[in-house]
Amino acid sequence: MARKERIFIFEIEGHLVSxxxxxxxxxxxxxxxxxxxCIIGDSGAPLxxxxxxxxxxxxxNYSKYMTPEGRGALHKQGFGVVDSDGDLVTPLVxxxxxxxxxxxxxxxxxxxSELAYCKGxxxxxxxxxxxxxxxxxxxxxxxxxxxxxxxxKICDCAFAKGKKEKVHVYKFLREPIIQKFxxxxxxxxxxxxxxxxxxxxx
Length: 202
Prior knowledge:
There is one protein chain. A 4-stranded mixed β-sheet has the order 1-2-8-7. The protein has a two-stranded antiparallel sheet with strand order 3-4. The two termini are 18 Å apart. Helix 10 packs across helix 11 (183-198). The protein is globular, with a radius of gyration of 18 Å. The chain has helices spanning 20-23, 30-33, 49-57, 59-62, 68-77, 112-118, 128-132, 156-165, 169-172, 174-181, 183-198, and strands at residues 9-12, 15-18, 81-82, 88-89, 101-103, 109-111, 135-139, 145-149. The chain has 202 residues and is of the alpha+beta class. A hairpin with a 2-residue loop joins strand 1 (9-12) and strand 2 (15-18). The longest helix has 16 residues, at 183-198. The chain folds into 2 domains: 1-26 and 134-202, no CATH class; 34-126, no CATH class.
């Protein structure tokens, strides 16, 4: 019988981290999913107030990559909306795709601001919640953040690809983790992973 993975929570720089971020594998498989995370979901992507203002500030630089429907929905709803859970999120087009979604001729989905960013036309890339997925960050009333692994069926292919290529979640997300939490936080993650490996849990 296969050994069942032990899941636990540890603390780094005052934040709570699920061990699954170190032990699970993940690598986006765009050729398989075609960017479905931009379309499927109950609400838009979690958005920080500063990011909403960045979307507002950079609009003229990325809006040409948005769909006409996306631009229309944005003009009606604004650059961010509050969902049924009381969270600030990106607006949606007809309760489906994110307003900031861009489609190519093969109907692959991209983030309009990220397209512009990669072309050197925009200073804002995309919401950190999108970049950090499948890590989801929750914030407690005292400011403590909890980092947990989120599983979404449309990303099954990414978990499978990560496992096949032996890419752990924290390694795949190195850049956005450092962007959000800093170099020292990531170094502590690496140290924790090494400890788990030495204990035979990684």
